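Protein data:
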Amino acid sequence: MAAINSLLDIDEARFVEENAYDILALKGRGKNIAIVGHFPWITKLRSIARTLWVIEQSPQEGELPAEAAEEVLPQADVVGITGTSFINHTAENLLDLSKNSFVIVVGPTTPLSPVLFDYGVDIAAGVKVVEPQKAIRSISQGAIWGQVEGAKLVTMAKGRK
């Protein structure tokens, strides 16, 4: 999706360089948080939430299977959904289950499109490729996300123009 994001013609004035973890921590402090997908900051988020559920297709210890989304998401005040849900065709159901929550779609696979706001997303936190040649070189050399050059983390918020 980061590659697609580099092709989208979106007013970059809508972007803010902000980390999704910081937003989740601010919005979720002392609240029920559900995260769909496994992220490296889960442990830190667990320490500030009233309850933190992690839903994963291949759950690790302390995580719930994907089927738990039906029960858990409607109970959450704040929901973080991996952008990969658009790739694996689960986004529509996850967004429907989260319709009464603050929703952030997060990760490098997040499509940075304001259309998401029409479907209940409050914040889209993804990646914008700003120097395509550097990004291509990094990825072709086997870089993992933290090592990719030429890309930056950005967010778009509903109502932010």
User: Anything to note?
Assistant: The chain is about 25% helix and 25% strand. Strands lie at 32-36, 51-56, 64-65, 78-82, 102-106, 123-129, 151-157. Confidence is low (pLDDT under 50) at residues 1-6. The chain has one domain: 2-157.
